[in-house]
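ugh finaly. both done.
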Amino acid sequence: MSPVTEGNLDASGLKIVIVVARFNSFITDRLLAGALDALKRSGAAPDAIEIVKVPGAWELPLTAKTLAATNRYAAIVALGAVIRGDTPHFDHVANQASSGLAAVALETGVPVAFGVLTTNTVEQAIDRAGGKSGNKGYDAAITAIEMADLLRRLRK
């Protein structure tokens, strides 16, 4: 069998920053709580977690890029909620948030976990922020931990 390399879910020793949008805070606060729970359960020290709040999902990529450039973080968790309305605004914000965050990871080499909900309804957002579909903030933090550890192993 070929050797397999994968990241572990051990956050001890990792410095993680969570960038969270304030827009739709009734959703993003739940995502943040989920992300913090995942980090705590995975062994992250409280002083190794930083939280940065931005106005909305549109501001996530620039903030993530600025934070990645500091070389202080093993990973970034980006959290937001873009809920479809009656105008094409949703498409612009959702597309730019996702492509911008992907570009940050590729350009900087710092993993950026995508915890931005893009839903058609408020109910769908609630379901994904601790409701019947789990908590995507928790999932994003788990992804950040695994990717930070994996990249650390691959770079050795």
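ok and the 2nd:
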Amino acid sequence: MIVKEFLDHAASECLDKRESYLVIFTTGMHGYVCRNEGATDPSRALFHGTYRECQIWIERRGIAAALDYVRAHLDAVAELAHPQLAAQRLMEIIAQVDG
């Protein structure tokens, strides 16, 4: 697998995880997060907070999903599978956005 394909798969994992949640507005800038399953009652909320806090809650789960993919599939990319690859360099490669 090439690096771009690898990162596209990681991004897809992130997107899928993020889209599995919904932010529901209540009053003002407040709301709550529910699973994107149709049942959006506040009693089923996974998190309550401001809209921004709810978005951060969701984004962190998306980032975690992407990093889980990276960790699980790192050996599939020869360029990244090198045992001496420093964490700093790995993060530089992952952070590249080249279209």
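summary for the 2nd one i guess: Residues 3-95 form one domain.
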